[in-house]
Amino acid sequence: MTDMLLIGLYALAAGGVVAAAGAGALRLLRDRSILVHIVVLLSVTVTAVVAGVAAVAQAMFLSAHDLRVVLVTVSASAAVSLVVGVAFGRRLAASAVWADQARERERRLEAGRRELVAWVSHDLRTPLAGLRAMAEALEDGVVADPATVGEYHRRIRLETDRLTQLVDDLFELSRINAGALRLAPTIVPLREVVSDALAGVAPLAARRGITLRAAESGWPRVRAGERELARVVSNLLINAVRYTPEDGTVQVDAGLEAGDVWLAVSDTCGGIPDDDLHRVFDVAFRGERARTPDCGAGGGLGLAIVRGLVEAHGGLVGVRNTGAGCRFEVRLPAA
Ligand code: ADP
Fold it and tell me: Above 70 in pLDDT, residue 1?
């Protein structure tokens, strides 16, 4: 009986030393991946068994040969359990990462929904209140002279057009956020999409004295939803023209690189403040210039829509400042 107690104590002491070393190792590696933790845990368990067996064998004065036999047997089982453990650990680590990504996606969607609700209450209700006030003033005859009445009518029409555009943007964004966007990808010649968008923005550019330029050649084809791609290009172009001071230049280029199609819209807007660069794609973000009345205030949804549509295609969009302005670049998987 005392023998058994002694054997137990030897095994416990050996295992305890290994466990303490393992706890130290885990502490040092606390920032590493789940897989590293699992490997350390398994190694500690296996080493504790080996150490226990070795300590007991030494104390029991096993012959060197018997001790080797025991150690080889234990090591073989240890190797098998380590291999199995690493394989399962990998799967566990991967599912933990997926769960993490799913949580992050859900968190972003929820934040997007909250931003949209806040946006609706401010950006739709405020102009509606203005419209109502103007309509009431007309109805009650508070404004009667023909010039003011004409001006009220004009403002009501402009504001209604703007609200229509905002509701349209809002609808698009909520479809993207709800994951309800169904793409019907076809092989699209990028050149034609860009030509159409340039034609659409040309009157605004002419009014502001802005030169529009597009590369002569090198236009790739891309696999994309045509309507969505057209929206991406025209949102980027409209912004470039709106935020570039008069007599500036807007340039569109495209090409193929490392299997991706890239499209860049560069302007001479003078640059986006560094603090704003990472926020321009956020829902409802508007830079300082967008809040000045002469700029034709937008809803702050244009670039959020661009990002949503590009990501729905498995692509990426980014922006950086260049010398005279900024450059928005879209990357999409090639056709
Ligand atoms: P909106 O234009 O309606 O304000 P967007 O989402 O299209 O909303 O753009 C967000 C902000 O990003 C704008 O308010 C503006 O400050 C900045 N921005 C977007 N495009 C450009 C550009 N081409 N040049 C400079 N600033 C830009």
Answer: no
**Per-residue confidence (pLDDT) for residue 118, from 0 to 100:** 80
Number of separate domains in the chain: 3
Q: Which residues of 165-194 are buried (b: 16+ CB within 10 A; e: fewer)?
A: ebeebbebbeebbeeeeebeeeebebbebb
Same domain? 30 vs 57? yes
* 223 in Cβ contact with 187 (< 8 Å): yes
Give the integer Cα–Cα distance in Å for 138 and 132.
10
CATH number at 135 reads 1.10.287.130
Q: For 60-145, where are the alpha helices, taking DSSP H only?
A: 64-119, 125-139
Supply the range of the domain harboring residue 61.
2-102
What whole-number distance in Å separates Cα of residue 319 and Cα of residue 289? Answer: 17
Q: For residue 210, what is the DSSP state? A: P
Q: Give the type of residue at 161.
A: D
Pairwise CA distance, residues 313 & 183, whole Å: 8
User: In this predicted structure, what is the pLDDT of residue 207?
Assistant: 94
d(CA 148, CA 165): 26
Q: Is 269 in the pocket of ligand 1 (CB under 6 A)?
A: yes
300 Cβ closer than 6 Å to some ligand 1 atom:
yes
The pLDDT value given to residue 117: 79
Tens digit of each residue's pLDDT (9 = 90 or more) over 96-152: 888 888 898 888 778 877 877 787 777 788 889 999 999 999 999 888 899 999 999
Query: Is 285 found in the same domain as 322?
Result: yes
Regarding whether 326 and 214 lie in a shared domain, the answer is: yes
CA 178 / ligand 1 centre spacing (Å): 24
Mutate to test the pocket of ligand 1, among 286, 289, 326 (most ligand atoms within 8 A of CB): 286
Query: So what's the pLDDT on residue 116?
Result: 76
